[in-house]
Specification:
This protein has 12 helices and 5 strands. It is α/β, with parallel strands linked by helices. The protein has a 5-stranded parallel beta sheet, sandwiched between helices. Helix 8 (about 140-150) links the parallel strand 1 (about 130-135) and strand 2. The radius of gyration is 20 Å and the shape is globular.
């Protein structure tokens, strides 16, 4: 992804201390990388759902004199990809939402051209016994899906999908049992208690691996390894095909690090067949 317009934009933004509003602008620009160099400050503000002065302050925070200087720079480092202009004009909102998800998956595929972060995450998750998997509210289904399949190959997976005062107790219990890492699925809108739980987990000695919608998500500051997977925003409720796919990729990487993963899967299949668990 580093050679794509989106990748070059993300590289430009990383390393800067951005406010939540500025992270929102950055995320919008990464998602619209092909259009970003040609958007006015007013157009960008409307797309990101912020004020025009916020766009100006964002440009200054990146070290530019103002938004025009940032836009000139973008035209040099992130030119639009050929064939992108004018596409989708005759499509309805449902088709556009599907195509946006396809684009999110393509961005994820580009990111995975460097398998290093995923392989590192797989090692961290495989070595943690137990392995706590956190996901609250919108992210709970992602965490539950990962935990369901992970339990087929990992000896001790603990799903943390409910907030409240018991959440820190369950983190403490995992640490006492020997956990060394925690996997978090964090999707917008980000519950405050997810941020607090990650801060608590790191203070307790856990290495936090996070799947979030962008490197500018509020959980980034409380993660040791964050791998982004964009969510779709074209419908009334966000769609999360890319985070789900990334979860399966992490499962694969973790299973590759577990020497008895294949044996566990074969044992499960044998028992499932004996119990008539599935309809053939």
């Amino acid at each position: 992804m580093s050679d794509s317009p989106a990748g070059r934009l993300q590289a430009l933004f990383e390393g800067h201390r951005l406010t939540p509003t500025q992270r929102r602008i950055a995320h919008c620009m990464v998602r619209r990388a092909g259009d970003a160099p040609f958007l006015s400050s007013v157009e960008l503000a409307e797309l990101a759902g912020v004020s025009q002065p916020s766009v100006t302050r964002f440009a200054v925070a990146l070290g530019f004199d103002g938004y025009p200087a940032l836009r000139r720079h973008l035209r040099e480092v992130a030119p639009p990809e050929p064939g992108g202009e004018g596409e989708g004009e005759a499509l309805n909102e449902y088709q556009q939402a599907v195509l946006a998800e396809i684009e999110n998956l393509q961005h994820l595929a580009g990111l995975l051209a460097d398998p290093g972060p995923v392989e590192r995450a797989g090692r961290l998750l495989a070595r943690s016994r137990p392995l706590p998997v956190l996901g609250l509210r919108a992210a709970s289904s992602q965490a539950r899906g990962f935990a369901y399949f992970a339990a087929k190959v990992h000896p001790d997976v603990r799903l943390l999908d409910e907030g409240g005062s018991m959440l820190t107790d369950r983190v403490d219990a995992a640490v006492r049992a020997g956990a060394t890492a925690l996997l978090c699925f964090a999707l917008p809108r980000h519950p405050r208690e997810v941020v607090e739980a990650l801060e608590y987990a790191r203070a307790a000695g856990l290495t936090v691996v996070t799947v979030a919608e962008s490197a500018f998500a509020p959980v980034a500051a409380h993660s040791d390894l964050l791998i982004p997977a964009a969510v779709g925003t074209g419908l009334a409720f966000d769609t999360a095909c890319a985070p789900m796919m990334l979860g399966r990729v992490l499962l694969e990487a973790m299973a590759d690090e577990l020497p008895d993963a294949q044996a566990r899967l074969e044992e499960f299949d044998t028992k499932a067949a004996a119990r008539g668990l599935f309809v053939e």
